[in-house]
Write a structure and sequence with these properties.
globular; 4-stranded mixed β-sheet; 169 residues; alpha/beta; two-stranded parallel sheet; single chain; 8 strands
């Protein structure tokens, strides 16, 4: 319900990530309505796009520029009802070529790049080999923090070193 976004705002949230497998449950119209409701509540949103705005948000947090981006593995096949152009315009699906370009571009705009990614196998306590591979690729492209969601159970996290800096997956 739209009221949830007002509650988010009242407890201190300022950003909603809507890049997940349910974002097209009510088709593009429902997704657009969700984006409008988020904005009406005075919040920013990642993961829902109209093709106009950048696909990232940069927040200044105590003088540190934090770039935030979001991706999802899919939308329960509802994305198949969209044209390729609509998918490209509205969604942030895992597309390694596009992700590499976007993450690499962010490295020049922010101090820290945070990626929220909706992926993995539900109820599996270990990441897949693909998740591990993609996470390390995102680090090599410039990500500093990768926050995963979707499995409904806790999966392990790790600190990795890249170019002498610690990164979090």
């Amino acid at each position: 319900p739209p009221e949830i976004f007002g509650a988010f705002k009242s407890v201190g949230f300022d950003l909603v990530n809507n890049s997940n497998n349910h974002q097209l449950d009510r088709k593009v119209g429902g997704m657009a309505e969700t984006m409008d409701n988020i904005h009406k509540a005075g919040l920013e949103v990642l993961g829902i796009y109209d093709g106009e705005e950048p696909r990232y948000i940069i927040k200044d947090l105590n003088g540190i520029k934090v770039g935030l981006m979001a991706y999802t593995y899919g939308c329960n096949l509802n994305e198949d009802a969209l044209t390729e152009e609509e998918r490209f315009r509205h969604l942030a699906l895992i597309d390694e070529e596009r992700m590499k370009k976007e993450i690499t571009e962010m490295e020049d705009r922010d101090d820290i790049t945070v990626i929220a990614i909706h992926w993995g196998t539900e109820y599996t306590q270990k990441p897949t080999e693909y998740q591990k591979k993609l996470a390390h690729e995102m680090i090599s492209w410039g990500a500093d923090v990768i926050l995963g969601s979707h499995p409904h159970v806790v999966q392990p996290s790790e600190m990795v070193e890249h170019n002498g800096q610690k990164k979090y997956i």
